[in-house]
Amino acid sequence: MVTKQIKELETTKTKIAALEKSIAKGLSKELATLHKKYGFASLAEFIKALKVSAGLGPRRKGRRGRPSKATDKVKRRRRAVITDETRASVKKLVEGGKTGSQIAKALGISLPSVQNIKKSLGLVKARA
Question: Tens digit of pLDDT per residue, the chain (128 long)?
Fold first, then answer.
């Protein structure tokens, strides 16, 4: 009984290996002709179009080697200006029991900024 099951298992494993090989071969053929399916003359043109549509295409460089503002697609966050008023607000919110992330969201600053302010005000417990 067990030997029969072992033989069935071996037969099934052989079928699976053959099926995997067949799938890999078919996939290679399909990928090789994918650019034609979408109307591109070459695979290189197809890849270039994919990169451009995904925002990974070449960027023109502005001054100092950075992307120029015209081509810079990433919206960058402005650096927060930490004032005495901001520090006082952080202290008040900490004393009110708010968490760091709640404080950051309420004041429009980053969590690391909140942590730095708390540390400078001595509101952080020392590690043991």
Answer: 889 999 999 999 999 999 999 999 999 888 888 888 888 888 888 888 888 888 876 655 555 555 555 555 667 767 878 899 999 999 999 999 999 999 999 999 999 999 999 999 998 877 76
Cβ count near 82 (within 10 Å): 16
Q: Where are the domains of the chain?
A: 2-57, 84-120
Structure tokens at 61: 């460089």
Tokens of 59: 């960027």
Burial of 117 (0-12, 13-18, 19+ CB in 10 A): buried
Hunting for tokens 């400078």 — which residue is that? 120
Q: Is the pTM of this model over 0.90?
A: no
